Amino acid sequence: MKQLEKISVIPESEHSGLPEVLSAVTPMAMLNRALASGASMEVMEKLMNLHERWEATQARKAFSEAIAAAKAEIPPIVRNATGHNSKKYADFAAIAFIVDPILGRHGLSYRFRTTQSDRINVTCILAHKAGHSEETTLGGPPDGSGNKNAIQAIGSTLTYLQRYSLVQMLGLAAAADDDGKAGATGELITQAQADNITDLIESVSADRGKFLTFFKIEAIADLPAKRYSEAITMLNAKRK
């Protein structure tokens, strides 16, 4: 204790000559100090530019963190539709049903920008509430297959490009569709699991009809056991 009493303390009057190493000084704090001290316009402009770059960096970091967190929650999207050559794919409604509530919970949203000449170009813009956004563009000709008229051909291509630009932007994975009931290929969920799903649908205000349509079942008890976790994840994603 005697030795501790010998430690000297730097007088308050001498603090001004020491570097500020114990607290981080943001560009905005520097800007406020410069403004209060009557700094020149040249100095103020440099600090403003520094502040803008700092904010952009923080927004980009927040965006990356939100994307990582959201992707960790997004399950594989079931291929619920059939396209050309009987190939299965996840339509836009199935993708949006899963990802929209998850993205929203992490401050993310997406929108599309479209241009058209001889080709249709769709840009998916993924943005974070902090201000940072990133985008990807896909293009293609109007889809004239299947005796579509001109408007239908444009609409088909728009839907296709919106779906795949969002998939590309989020790096989504698609799961094979077991086409509903397990039947002879697997077990169904237990009554307790069915009751749990029923309660969860009510608690998150989900649309029961859409849920049944999505899983291609007539009743909740018909849900295959191997899709129980997917259903729980999907419903939990709707929590606000």
Structure notes:
The protein contains eight helices and seven strands. With 240 residues, the chain is an alpha+beta fold. It folds into three domains: 27-71, no CATH class; 77-175, no CATH class; 179-236, no CATH class. It is flat and about 75 Å long. It starts with a helix and ends with a helix.
What layout of secondary structure does this protein have?
Layout: H1 2-5, H2 27-36, H3 41-73, E1 77-78, E2 81-82, E3 88-89, H4 92-105, E4 108-116, E5 120-128, E6 133-140, H5 150-170, E7 174-175, H6 191-203, H7 208-215, H8 228-236
Parallel strand pairs: 1-7
Antiparallel strand pairs: 2-3, 4-5, 5-6
Helix pairs in contact: 2-3, 3-4, 6-8
Short synopsis of the structure:
With 240 residues, this protein is α+β, with helices and mostly antiparallel strands. It has helices at 2-5, 27-36, 41-73, 92-105, 150-170, 191-203, 208-215, 228-236, and strands at residues 77-78, 81-82, 88-89, 108-116, 120-128, 133-140, 174-175. The chain has 3 domains: 27-71, no CATH class; 77-175, no CATH class; 179-236, no CATH class.
Helix content: 40-55%
**Percentage of β-strand residues:** 5-15%
Number of strands: 7
Ranges with pLDDT <50 over ≥5 residues? 1-23, 177-185
The N- and C-terminal alpha carbons lie at a distance of 56 Å
> What is the 3D shape?
flat
- SSE succession: HHHEEEHEEEHEHHH
Q: Provide the residue-averaged pLDDT.
A: 79
| Overall tally of domains | 3
Secondary structure class reads alpha+beta
Strand order within the widest sheet? Answer: 4-5-6
Based on CA atoms alone, the radius of gyration comes out at 28 Å
Main beta sheet: 3 strands, antiparallel
Count of DSSP-assigned helices: 8
